[in-house]
Each structure stands twice: as structure tokens, then as C-alpha cells.
Write a structure and sequence with these properties.
This protein has about 375 residues and is of the alpha+beta class. The protein folds into two domains: about 15-50 and about 105-260, Lambda Exonuclease, Chain A (Alpha-Beta Complex), CATH 3.90.320; about 300-380, no CATH class. The chain is built from twelve helices and ten strands. The protein has helices spanning about 40-45, 50-65, 70-75, 85-95, 100-115, 130-140, 190-205, 245-265, 300-315, 320-325, 345-360, 375-380, and strands at about 15-20, 25, 35-40, 145-155, 160-170, 180-185, 210, 215-220, 225-230, 240-245. Strands 1, 2, 3, 4, 5, 6, 7, 8, 9 and 10 form a ten-stranded mixed beta sheet that branches. The radius of gyration is 27 Å and the shape is globular.
């Protein structure tokens, strides 16, 4: 069919920089400030049940080790502290299980379809020409057409501070605004991944700007109720189209945002300080001086509780081992089991450790230092 939607040029997204966590580094379309953006797939995966995926990955690793006796021997020679070596063994075992081969074929199919949708002539080798024929036939029979210029576009939602790359915009039988469409090449991605896909496509449909390679432009109006998934499993010569309820997906996006906010809560627990047998309550004996570091001015009690909450949050998210490794390089800083920080310098060092682990684990950063000069000025 002929597109009814205003097309744009085929300009590239440009050479977009990413940080060490894969986040886009792009200017804010409102303020112009360059910053990292949380990926759409990261937010969309907040509510995902990863158990099936994790089991699949574990099976690949075990199978790969069985195929490579050299990897098995290397693993047997390691201790649990040989983390870098063990990580490399895992990666090679996954490759041995042909996990990456499937990913490469999926990427090839994606690129073939992208070039075709940009109007290029593509010579597809057998047997994957059957997949491409099935792709073109499915779209034609459903009266769906890719909007020219709307392939692999980077878009953002500044309100949520997320960015991502939508696969396509398509016109079709529904006859109103174009819809977001996404190509999936995995064998089981539709039956097991649709809850996550619905969030992902809802986010793309609510984007406010798209990137031209040099500047942001306002996003055109697209259908925010329905989207399209194009399921093209590699090597099967078949293509199935699905209409996806992204209105429900957007409701789930709101829930995912609230879940991420919940994970940043730091006011859910307060430490119970031990009382010795000779201790009395302060109100019962007010003339007894408090000689704790916080009371004597050596360290701020507010800052101690601030870093304590950060440490507990890191542990609760399953990254206590990472923090322990970082802390082991600062033996002069007492842990909370050892009584906690005794000086402001200790607090600063613990905060720096938390910064490092939170960034490495991609945990959202929480409230700033309560004794930060700007905050203190605001409170005054």
C-alpha cells in the first residue's frame, strides 16, 4: 500500500555515543544539556520475570562446558575468587553452545529487512531468502506498509528520561495514525516475551522527539492504543503479524516507574542501636554525656544514616559482594559491623564506594548528601 503519512529523509542517526552501560549520550531536547538516557529496554524489563531466561542461559553454559573440555579444565583450575577468568569461561561456553550464532543470524535478518524497507536492492543468500520472502508477503497480504524514513529511529521521552531505537513506523488497514512496529526473530520471543514487548512499544509510541543525527525534532502523532509485532523466526520461512495492546502496555509502564521509585526508598528501616547493661535512657539521666562520634562532632549522624541506607540498598539488590570487594581496598574504613564511620572522611570514602558500585550495577542514584552545601542553604 502507499503510505498516507508524511515521510522523512533517510538520514542516519549519526555516530551516537554511549557510556559504559550502553546508555545513549544525547542532549536533552528541552534544556540542551548532554546526558545519559536510561534505555527503553531497561525500563520495559523492570516487571519482567527473568527466571526462564536465566534457566536457558544456565543450560547453555553447562552444555558449552560439555562441548569444550579445555573450558572444563580451566574452570576446574580456578577458585571462586578468579572472577575475570570465570567470566571469560562463561562467555566462551555460551559461544560453544551456539548461542551467539543464533544472535548473529537474527541480526542479519534484521539488517536485510531494514535495507529492503529503505528501498535498497538486497541479494539474500539461501536459505534466508525464504524468510525475507515471507516477511514481504506477510506485510503485503495484511495491507501494511513501512513509512519511508521511519526505520531504526532514536526517540526519547524526557519526562521519564528514557531513550531507545524504534524499529519502524507502519501504515495499514486501520487507516488512522501510523503504528509503531517491531521485528522479532527469536523462536520463542512472542509467547514468552509479550508482556515486556508491550511496555517497550508503548514507550516508543509515547516518545516526544526523534533524533535526526544532529538535532531533535518533534515526534509525529502515532497510534498509542495498538502497535504491530512482526514475528520472523530465523530459518523457518514464515512470518506472523500480531496486533499489540499498548494502551495496557502504557499502564504497565506507569507501574514500572513506580517500582523503580520504590527500589530507591531509603526510609524503610532505622538501625536499632545496642544498649549495654549499664546504659540508661537519656531522658532518665540527662546529665550523662553522649560520647558517640556523631554527638561529639566527629561525624554527622545524618550523613552516617545516609550512607548506611545506600549500603543496605546495594546489599538488598544483590550486589553486596561487589561492595565488599571495593571496600577491601579501604581497610582503614570500618564497616557497619565494626561500628561504622568514625570521621567525615570515612563517610566520604563509603559514599565514593557506593557511587562506584551503583554505577557499575546500574542502580538509580538516590537522595544527595544531606550535608551538601546547596541542600544546607536550601534548608536555611
Amino acid at each position: 500500500m502507499t503510505s498516507l503519512f508524511t515521510t522523512v529523509g533517510h538520514e542516519s542517526n549519526g555516530n551516537i555515543r554511549r557510556d559504559q552501560y550502553g546508555r545513549y549520550i544525547l542532549p536533552d531536547p528541552v534544556t540542551g544539556e548532554e546526558k545519559p538516557w536510561t534505555r527503553v529496554t531497561t525500563l520495559a524489563g523492570t516487571l519482567a520475570d527473568r527466571r526462564g531466561l536465566e534457566k536457558w542461559a544456565q543450560r547453555n553454559i553447562v552444555y558449552g562446558l560439555g562441548q569444550r573440555q579445555d573450558l572444563y579444565a580451566r574452570a576446574a583450575a580456578c577458585t571462586l575468587d578468579d572472577r575475570e577468568t570465570l567470566t571469560r569461561i562463561v562467555e566462551e561456553a555460551q559461544s560453544a553452545a551456539a548461542e551467539k550464532a543464533g544472535a548473529n543470524l537474527g541480526s542479519a535478518i534484521h539488517q536485510f529487512t531494514e535495507r529492503i524497507d529503505r528501498g535498497e536492492q538486497v541479494n539474500v543468500p539461501a536459505p534466508y531468502d525464504r524468510d525475507i520472502d515471507a516477511y514481504k508477503r506477510a506485510l503485503d497480504q495484511a495491507d501494511i506498509a513501512v513509512v519511508l524514513g521511519w526505520v531504526e529511529r532514536v526517540v526519547v521521552i524526557p519526562e521519564l528520561e528514557v531513550a531507545g531505537t524504534l524499529d519502524r513506523l507502519v501504515d495499514g488497514y486501520w487507516g488512522s495514525n501510523p503504528r509503531v512496529a517491531d521485528l522479532k526473530t527469536g523462536k520463542d520471543v512472542v509467547p514468552y516475551g509479550m508482556t515486556e514487548i508491550a511496555l517497550q512499544l508503548a514507550l516508543y509510541a509515547h516518545a516526544t522527539h526523534y533524533w535526526t543525527g544532529e538535532t531533535w525534532q518533534p515526534m509525529p502523532t502515532v497510534d498509542q492504543d495498538r502497535a504491530v509485532v512482526i514475528h520472523l523466526p530465523v530459518g523457518q520461512g514464515r512470518c506472523v503479524l500480531y496486533e499489540v495492546d499498548i494502551q495496557a502496555g502504557w499502564d504497565a509502564v506507569k507501574l514500572a516507574v513506580e517500582v523503580r521509585r520504590w527500589r530507591q526508598r531509603r526510609d524503610l528501616a532505622q538501625q536499632i542501636h545496642p544498649v549495654t547493661s549499664t546504659a540508661v535512657r537519656a531522658e532518665e539521666k540527662p546529665n550523662v554525656a553522649d560520647t558517640s562520634p556523631a554527638a561529639t562532632g566527629q561525624v554527622s549522624a545524618a550523613r552516617v544514616e545516609w550512607v548506611r541506607a545506600r549500603v543496605e540498598r546495594i546489599i538488598n539488590h544483590g550486589h553486596g559482594d561487589k561492595l565488599a570487594r571495593v571496600w577491601s581496598a579501604h581497610k582503614n574504613v570500618p564497616t557497619f559491623k565494626q561500628g561504622g564511620p568514625r570521621t567525615e572522611e570515612h563517610v566520604d570514602q563509603i559514599a565514593a564506594m557506593c557511587d562506584q558500585v551503583e554505577a557499575d550495577a546500574q542502580l538509580p542514584f538516590g537522595p544527595p548528601d544531606p550535608e551538601h552545601p546547596l541542600l544546607k542553604e536550601t534548608k536555611q
